[in-house]
Design goal:
Layout (H helix, E strand, L loop, with lengths): L3 H14 L6 H5 L7 H7 L1 H14 L8 H7 L12 H10 L5 H6 L9
Helix pairs in contact: 1-4, 3-4
Amino acid sequence: MAEYVEVMKQKKRMCNSTLCCKCDIFHLCGEDISNCSQFISNNPSEAEKIIMTWAAEHPEPVYPTWMEWLTVVGAIPKAISWDEPLVEAVYDALQEPIPAELAEKLEIDPKPQV
């Protein structure tokens, strides 16, 4: 069984982006949204397969790191010294991907899927 946290993360993503009427779990639980959680609890393997199949078919967008984005917009020069302790901490933070919610607000496109 896939890691529980990942399955629940993908379930949330699926529920937030798919109409219930297009969801296999919704149809299997008698088309009653109040039964979805109970169906998942009673049929964890089947629910996991449905959720993870959906997730594979709908990959989560990956956004550039802060460093990639700031370099592209010209806010950070490409050649800069990152060897002081405080600057290293900033550098490490800039290597994190931009969170999806913030990237969307900043109108930053996701990276192309490889």
